[in-house]
């Protein structure tokens, strides 16, 4: 491998690390952002995309670029089962095939798949898309988080957009100890010691980062899961006054928007059925949800205040083992995807 090739591959790895891992699924936006018969421009993994939904609810995700002259398809018209570029009227179907060129019917563009189309799935109120590279165009196997699919679990999706690199948002979740300080005065976060020791426990789908000397009190553990989509799971004990269902769980995912922005998805869940489900929904919407938004806002304020090179000028200690493990994992993946792994 020449020096030029090595430098190019290293640059590609840096780009992947900055904008998100490929060959896996990522959340993009909440399903409610794209109404039936509507379309929406989104940015994900540093690229612009068009989401459009037919009147029957079928969803498609296309590169936001007309194959004719490169104009944004998101400025065009929704034609039911296709979109038409505003610039010259070129019509593109949901799978990226050019259906019609009104200015020159029968030209050689028609019938060709010239626009990149991504596989999409909708899960518990969110749109997930598979971002593969040229060597891995077919979608990876996807196993969804159990709390979002299993009967008897009620989940509410909370979505926000932060002006921080996507890695900072994921690292924040792999740092349970910040709950005892940043969120100390918040709902249910005041209990537990402010000193602790942690360990990493490997699993078949990722790893736990957990306190060794405290359990069932605060933000005591988090599990990173890689099941075709990266997600984290954690549990916070709730008092009886918070209603039925026992511990309160959170499933978290992060969408890399670009190098400086991300979208955060938090499903707040409890295992409840029947009348307990109705009670939990009522309590959450009338009392608890506001408090959770306040906690999320504390995270946003802290992370957005951190400099872009915060992860380059650190002095880490034992509580940061989960973050270190995460960084090594993503850097190795980025190098492999860029072809620089040894």
TrEMBL record:
Q: Which residues cross the membrane?
A: none
Pfam families given in the database record: Rieske, VanA_C
InterPro entries annotated for this entry?
Answer: Cholesterol_7-desaturase, Rieske_2Fe-2S, Rieske_2Fe-2S_sf, VanA_C_cat
- UniProt entry keywords in alphabetical sequence: 2Fe-2S, Dioxygenase, Iron, Iron-sulfur, Metal-binding, Oxidoreductase
Could you tell me the superkingdom of the organism this chain comes from? Bacteria
Q: Molecular function terms in GO for this entry?
A: 2 iron, 2 sulfur cluster binding; dioxygenase activity; metal ion binding; monooxygenase activity; oxidoreductase activity, acting on paired donors, with incorporation or reduction of molecular oxygen
According to the entry, every stretch annotated as the Rieske domain falls at: 25-129
Record-given protein name: Aromatic ring-hydroxylating dioxygenase subunit alpha
- Its source organism is Streptomyces antnestii
């Amino acid at each position: 491998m020449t020096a030029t090739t090595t430098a190019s591959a290293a640059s590609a790895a840096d780009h992947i690390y900055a904008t998100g891992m490929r060959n896996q699924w990522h959340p993009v936006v909440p399903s409610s952002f794209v109404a039936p018969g509507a379309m929406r421009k989104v940015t994900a993994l540093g690229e612009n995309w068009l989401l459009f939904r037919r009147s029957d609810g079928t969803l498609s995700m296309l590169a936001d670029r007309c194959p004719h002259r490169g104009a944004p398809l998101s400025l065009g018209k929704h034609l039911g089962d296709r979109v038409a570029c505003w610039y010259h009227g070129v019509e593109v179907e949901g799978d990226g095939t050019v259906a019609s060129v009104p200015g020159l019917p029968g030209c050689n563009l028609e019938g060709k798949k010239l626009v990149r189309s991504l596989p999409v799935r909708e899960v518990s109120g969110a749109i997930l898309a598979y971002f593969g590279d040229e060597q891995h165009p077919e979608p990876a196997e996807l196993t969804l988080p159990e709390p979002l699919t299993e009967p008897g679990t009620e989940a509410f999706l909370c979505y926000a957009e932060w002006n921080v690199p996507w890695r900072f948002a994921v690292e924040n979740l792999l740092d349970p100890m910040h709950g005892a300080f940043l969120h100390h005065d918040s709902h249910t976060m005041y209990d537990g010691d402010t000193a602790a020791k942690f360990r990493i426990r490997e699993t078949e789908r990722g790893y736990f980062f957990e306190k060794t000397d405290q359990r069932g009190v605060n933000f005591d553990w988090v599990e990173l899961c890689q099941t075709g989509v990266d997600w984290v799971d954690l549990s916070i004990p709730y008092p009886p006054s918070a209603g039925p269902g026992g511990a309160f769980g959170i499933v978290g995912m992060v969408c890399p928007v670009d190098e400086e922005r991300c979208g955060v998805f938090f499903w707040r869940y409890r295992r409840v059925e029947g009348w307990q489900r109705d009670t939990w929904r009522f309590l959450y919407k009338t009392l608890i949800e506001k408090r959770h938004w306040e906690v999320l806002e504390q995270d946003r304020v802290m992370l957005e205040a951190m400099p872009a090179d915060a992860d380059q000028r650190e002095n880490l200690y034992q509580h940061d083992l989960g973050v270190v493990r995460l960084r090594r994992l993503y850097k190795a993946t980025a190098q492999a995807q860029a072809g620089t792994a040894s």
